[in-house]
């Protein structure tokens, strides 16, 4: 009997050693022998439960834990093991109950507290988790891993002082090191002890010591694949990537099925850009160990990078099935779902990742990006700040936070922020990394032209990486126009064929092309939004294809190529909804940027950018990777004459009757305006001065009908004052301009022309009747401190003046007001209005006297809107495309005197308009006339100019 007992104990010790070294197969084999000998031995049952848990055989693990509990219902460790199974399955409440039961049975069970804390974190009970960690430390204050986890948790909860106490190095590390060193003094050539000691050093960030100690372990046991793999990890951390690669390869020569080495080597290959090799290695790791959650997640990440989103999603789901508390997989799956436009799914993934690991900086940053894209800027700012608290050196979070602060005009430490942004971009470009500043935001920061171009170039290269993964052969393109019957085939690609500013600008152009010479293809990247804008483009283009129904870029590019398009136009650039991969595949022989994106693509697959000499003068050509294709006037266009013909004419009410007639206090517009005016008594026509000369030619664009204060005028004013929707006067419906959405929503969006006479007044927006109103209707991110300072200077020099801005977004209003007050302006001098539907937005621009443009990034569509309303716009061109568009518009309009060369001149022009009433009237008359007479809003002329450019 004694011999059998010793044999049993020896076998049990061996099984434990095998389990600890990770040889689960041998440990299980020996445990099964032990179990057959003693089926009621709870120690064996517990070990079998743990082995099956490590091998992801959760049902078997639960089975052996249950058997152990049957033998001993007071066995805390068995309940804890069952809790682990429930936690891995994602059944958190069951897990928590089992851990709590284990702790009731054994109050000093430290592992139980640690497991309970992790489950509580995953369940979102942060306070409970803190208590569990604190309880564990009461029994052993030297547990480094517990201190570290507790410190991270407190940091995530914002309790930084408490966190510091727990993150300080604790004695347990020294004790662990001392223990291993004692063991080595007794047995200096014990390779496993050297390996374990190296792991402690590595965990502590003592990388050099870890490397030396791993090397010693390998000297003692050269056929030790785990040691080579761990050494490689440390070398990679140190930046010795080639040596790390060598070590992973050595581990794989010793053990070709070493899954960790396959996975980690794949990570290196991926970072080197050897994507296909990385994919093969990840797949091999999964062949060897199909339940390898990290390899599933890593493979998914590469597939996502290649645009294979469905396959990526499948692997993320596998990773989460295997490990339901795998926070990284949740966060990365969120990124994939976000790319697939599943915002709600992405939000759930990021939230779950943070529940599992509240100290997960990347997940906080990803959650912030969802808030940012949804317009929840305060939430985004809070999440980015949390991410940066947890990980101060986090360029993506920093640059995105900076952009959020720009959106809401929070200029705290503005200069420092700008310097840091520039240094981050410089460092990333130097290290050949993808910059954290997006190309579309680069014009907002003081970056060099070379930096802006390089940022765009990196994003262009990303598209090339994605299409290279498709291994598609290049297309052959026709050398002449024979196959198309002599017609030039032009394809417009956009995600914005619908209710979007881009469609508001160009929706008439496809239908205006000369069908004898041009065949027009429109390729939509977004589904039908059901608006008339979409219907118009679909009806008027010769061919319309919805590529959102062909998500595969390769197949979508095939479709474009099959259509035989000669010139393919990119209207998105790097804006939301873009699919630049289509252009990277080069389905057309000539590809050009146009209208929708205010900058260079930086991409070798874009040949031209359609622009003009004012926007992109030859001396600034180095900003662009494309050749400059010049339009004869401005490259910008607006469909305002077609969308808002009721604003071609206006009448005003002479509400003061003192001989001084204002053209922008109470304004009437309508398609039937002339007939309505003919029905009223005593309407007089006032001639507006233009170019300093009295108008005598009777040009209607320069004459303004004035309605005296009579019954009709009183009825109109009464309607506005009482907030009525509409009144009927002489059988004509006259409507309150604030009520367009209630009367006809299609008219409000600009899809239809209002059928009523529409009244717009300063009183509707709380604008003073007797003041000069300067306005700017841009999004607030386009305002920077120097611009607000210029505006404040102007308002101070024009005492009876106000500035009219939009709550775009509303959270920016208090910031602007505070900075303006710091500059010496009372809050009453700046008036904010809500963002309005499109037609009201354009129409109410008539109420302002002067528009003050934002030099940093001009009003582009909003510039066209305010000019169509007849309001002069003062601008100051910079050097970027985005800062020169307004000057191009004004040059085309024939109002070059509104273009300032510097800040002082900008202020002087604006002040002259605000103080010299005759000059203001003259410039308003000029803009009112020129919007009809010049080429700026002439879509037919523009289309012919565009055609000449295409033929060149």
From TrEMBL:
Sorted alphabetically, which Pfam families does this protein's record hold?
Glyco_transf_41 (PF13844), TPR_1 (PF00515), TPR_11 (PF13414), TPR_12 (PF13424)
Pathway membership: Protein modification; protein glycosylation
- Gene3D superfamilies per the UniProt record, alphabetical: 3.30.720.150, 3.40.50.11380, Glycogen Phosphorylase B, Tetratricopeptide repeat domain
According to its UniProt record, the EC number is: 2.4.1.255
Q: Which residues form the O-GlcNAc transferase C-terminal domain?
A: 408-946
Q: Which GO terms describe its molecular function?
A: protein O-acetylglucosaminyltransferase activity
Q: Which InterPro entries match?
A: OGT, OGT/SEC/SPY_C, TPR-like_helical_dom_sf, TPR_rpt
UniProt keyword annotations, A-Z: Glycosyltransferase, Repeat, TPR repeat, Transferase
Can you say where the TPR repeats lie in this chain? 76-109, 110-143, 191-224, 225-258, 259-292, 293-326, 327-360, 361-394
One GO biological-process annotation of the entry reads: protein O-linked glycosylation
Is Repeat found in the keyword set?
A: yes
Q: Which family does it belong to?
A: Belongs to the glycosyltransferase 41 family. O-GlcNAc transferase subfamily.
- Please give the name of this protein: UDP-N-acetylglucosamine--peptide N-acetylglucosaminyltransferase 110 kDa subunit
Q: Which organism is it from?
A: Scleropages formosus (Asian bonytongue)
Task: Tell me the organism's taxonomic lineage.
Answer: Eukaryota, Metazoa, Chordata, Craniata, Vertebrata
């Amino acid at each position: 009997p004694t011999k059998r007992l010793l044999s049993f104990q020896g076998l049990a010790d061996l099984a434990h050693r095998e389990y600890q070294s990770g040889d689960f197969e041998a440990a299980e084999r020996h445990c099964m022998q032990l179990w057959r000998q003693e089926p009621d031995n709870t120690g064996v049952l517990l070990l079998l439960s743990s082995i099956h848990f490590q091998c992801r055989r959760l049902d078997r693990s639960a089975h052996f834990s249950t058997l152990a509990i049957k033998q001993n219902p007071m066995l805390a460790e068995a309940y804890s093991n069952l809790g682990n199974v429930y936690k891995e399955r994602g059944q958190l409440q069951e897990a928590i109950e089992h851990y709590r039961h284990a702790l009731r049975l054994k109050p000093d069970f430290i592992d139980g507290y640690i497991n309970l804390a992790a489950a509580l974190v995953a369940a979102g009970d942060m306070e409970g988790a803190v208590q569990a960690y604190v309880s564990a430390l009461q029994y052993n204050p030297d547990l480094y891993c517990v201190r570290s986890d507790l410190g991270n948790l407190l940091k995530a909860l914002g309790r930084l002082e408490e966190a510091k106490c727990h993150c300080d190095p604790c004695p347990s590390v020294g004790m662990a090191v001392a223990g291993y060193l004692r063991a080595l003094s007794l047995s200096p050539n014990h390779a496993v002890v050297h390996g374990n000691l190296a792991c402690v050093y590595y965990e502590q960030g003592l990388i050099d010591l870890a490397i030396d100690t791993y090397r010693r372990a390998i000297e003692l046991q050269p056929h030790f694949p785990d040691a080579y793999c761990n050494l490689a990890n440390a070398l990679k951390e140190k930046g010795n990537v080639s040596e790390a690669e060598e070590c992973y390869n050595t581990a794989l020569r010793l053990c070709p099925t070493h899954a960790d080495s396959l996975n980690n080597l794949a990570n290196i290959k991926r970072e080197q850009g050897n994507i296909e090799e990385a994919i093969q290695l990840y797949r091999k790791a999964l062949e060897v160990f199909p339940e390898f959650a990290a390899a599933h997640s890593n493979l998914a990440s590469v597939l996502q990078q290649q645009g294979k989103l469905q396959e990526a999603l499948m692997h993320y789901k596998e990773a989460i099935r295997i490990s339901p508390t795998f926070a990284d997989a949740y966060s990365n799956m969120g990124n994939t779902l976000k790319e697939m436009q599943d915002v709600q799914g992405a939000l759930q993934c990021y939230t779950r990742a943070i529940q599992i690991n509240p100290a997960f900086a990347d997940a906080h940053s990803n959650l912030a990006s969802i808030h940012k894209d949804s317009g929840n800027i305060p939430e985004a700012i809070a999440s980015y700040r949390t991410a940066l608290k947890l990980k101060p050196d986090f360029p993506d979070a920093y640059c995105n936070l900076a952009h959020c602060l720009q959106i809401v005009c929070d200029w705290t430490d503005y200069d420092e922020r700008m310097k840091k942004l520039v240094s981050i971009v410089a460092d990333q470009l130097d290290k050949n990394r993808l910059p954290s500043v997006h190309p579309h935001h680069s014009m907002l920061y003081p970056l060099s032209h070379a930096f802006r171009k390089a940022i765009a170039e990196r994003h262009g290269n990303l598209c090339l990486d994605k299409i290279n993964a498709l291994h598609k052969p290049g297309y052959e393109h026709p050398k002449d126009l024979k196959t198309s019957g002599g017609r030039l085939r032009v394809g417009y690609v956009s995600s914005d064929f619908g209710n979007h500013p881009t469609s508001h600008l160009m929706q008439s152009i496809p239908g205006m092309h000369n069908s004898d010479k041009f065949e027009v293809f429109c390729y939509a990247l977004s589904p039908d939004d059901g608006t008339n804008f979409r219907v118009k483009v679909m009806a008027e283009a010769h061919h319309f294809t919805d590529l959102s129904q062909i998500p595969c870029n390769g197949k979508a590019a095939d479709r474009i190529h099959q259509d035989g398009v000669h010139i393919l136009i990119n209207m998105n650039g790097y804006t939301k909804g873009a699919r630049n991969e289509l252009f990277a595949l080069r389905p057309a022989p000539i590809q050009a940027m146009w209208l929708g994106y205010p900058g260079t693509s930086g991409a070798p697959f874009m040949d031209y950018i359609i622009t003009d000499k004012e926007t992109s003068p030859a001396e600034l050509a180095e900003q662009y990777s494309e050749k400059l294709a010049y339009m004869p006037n401005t490259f910008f266009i607006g469909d305002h004459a077609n969308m808002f013909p009721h604003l071609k004419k206006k009448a005003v009410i002479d509400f003061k009757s003192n001989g001084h007639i204002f053209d922008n206090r109470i304004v009437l517009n309508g398609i039937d305006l002339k007939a309505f005016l003919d029905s009223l008594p005593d309407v007089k026509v006032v001639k507006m001065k233009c170019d300093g000369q009295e108008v005598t030619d009777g040009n209607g664009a320069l004459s303004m009908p004035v309605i005296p204060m009579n019954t009709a005028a009183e009825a109109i004013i009464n309607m506005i004052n009482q907030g009525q929707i509409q009144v009927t006067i002489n059988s004509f419906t006259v409507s309150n301009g604030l009520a367009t959405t209630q009367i006809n929503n299609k008219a409000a969006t600009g899809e239809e022309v209002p059928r009523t006479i529409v009244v717009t007044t300063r009183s509707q927006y709380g604008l003073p009747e007797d003041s000069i109103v300067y306005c700017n209707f841009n999004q607030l991110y386009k305002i920077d401190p120097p611009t607000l300072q210029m505006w404040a200077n102007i308002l101070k020099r024009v005492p009876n003046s106000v500035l009219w801005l939009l709550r775009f977004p509303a959270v920016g209003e208090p910031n602007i007001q505070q900075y303006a007050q710091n500059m010496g302006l009372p809050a009453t001098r700046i008036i904010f209005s809500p963002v309005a539907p499109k037609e009201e937005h354009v129409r109410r621009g008539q109420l302002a006297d002067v528009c003050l443009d934002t030099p940093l990034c001009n009003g582009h569509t909003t510039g066209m809107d305010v000019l169509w309303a007849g309001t002069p716009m003062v601008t100051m061109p910079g050097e970027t495309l985005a800062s020169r568009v307004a000057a191009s518009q004004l040059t085309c309009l024939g109002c070059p005197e509104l273009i300032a060369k510097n800040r002082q001149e900008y202020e002087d022009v604006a002040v002259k308009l605000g103080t010299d009433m005759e000059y203001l009237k003259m410039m308003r008359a000029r803009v009112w006339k020129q919007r009809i007479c010049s080429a700026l809003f002439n879509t037919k002329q523009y289309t012919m100019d565009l055609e000449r450019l295409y033929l060149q």
